[in-house]
Every structure is written in C-alpha cells, then in structure tokens.
Amino acid sequence: MFRTLTVVPLVALGLSLSACADLSQPTVRADLLDQTGKVTGTATFSPSPIGTRVSIEVSGLKPGPHGLHIHENPNCNPGPDAQGQTIPFGAAGGHFDPGASHNHDGPHARNDQGHGGDLPMITVGEDGKGRLNFDTNRLKMTGPTGVLGRSIVIHAGADDYQTDPAGNSGGRERCGVFQAIN
Q1: What angle do CA 63, 67, 70 make, to 5 degrees?
Q2: Would you say 69 and 56 are in contact if contact means Cβ atoms under 8 Å apart?
Q3: pLDDT digits (tens, 9 = 90+) for 56-104
Q4: In the beta sheet, which residues pair with residue 5?
Q5: Rg (CA), the chain
Q6: Which structural domains are found in the chain, ordered by start?
Q7: CA–CA separation, 88 vs 23, rounded Å?
Q8: Hey, how many other C-beta atoms are within 10 angstroms of the C-beta on 7?
C-alpha cells in the first residue's frame, strides 16, 4: 500500500528556515565515560534545519533499552543521589528541566510538561553497542535550553517515562560533559 506525502513549503505556513533553526549554534560533544573513566562512546548535538540533530554511539553496555538524559551539572564525578547516597556520576545532578516542569516525562513532551533533558532511549545490541540519531526542537546547544555546560547520562535500564525522578531506569552507567567543538 502506498501513502501520499504532502509537502508544505515553510513559506506557505508563514515560516522561514531561520524560524525553525538557529544554524549559528556551535556543535557540542561529550565523550561518554564508563565508571572507570574509559571513553566508550560519544554524544554529539549539532544545529540542523529543523532544530538540533543528536547522534550518540556507545559500547560496553548490556543489551536492551537504556534511559538517556541530559543532567544539570557539567560533572561526571561520584556524588550524592536524591537520598544522599554517593553514586557513580552523581555529581551530574538531576535532570535538566529548562521549563521548570518538575516532572519526568517522555521525550516528546513540551518542556513545560516534562524535563527537557528526558531523551529517547538508546537500544544496545547483543554486541554491546548502541547507536541513536534523532532530531529535537526541545534542546539547543546554548541558551536557556542549551546542553553546553551540562552532562549526558546513560542509565542501566529502560526508562518508563513516568516515574520521578529518573523514569525507574536504574543506575548511571555512562556520563559525559558537553564541550563546544566548533
């Protein structure tokens, strides 16, 4: 069965390309560290015509889906969790919440309804490798919704997209701090 795709030019919607994206934003990247400090992947955010292009590659994780979140602090050291217990990558703090929603939600919720840092899950294959590419307009590289100067965390398990604070996704398995690369 064939589907018909209707393409509507941005001009017909009263929009210009500049209204959809800020292509002057820098590209930012985080090296994903395991708990021993070894680099096991990268997360790159770059400007795209429709917002922000996200590309993530990681290795060495157990097969299956893993929660993926932007965290407040640019720090991957051990630190306290919400109960005050020291955990790996705890210094990254809580989820980035630029809309002050105070609510864990899915990756497609508006920033005022859920944490802007709640991202789609990354699925890892039997070989321990995962790759994820997606576009978003919830996050940018800089500014109020910017990831520069923040961290990204991959959790041990799947995200249920509802349980506060981290979607019941388990411990922090990978962490990286975003740096501008151009």
Answers
A1: 135
A2: no
A3: 999 999 999 999 999 999 999 999 987 889 999 999 998 887 766 565 6
A4: none
A5: 17
A6: 21-180 (2.60.40.200)
A7: 35
A8: 5
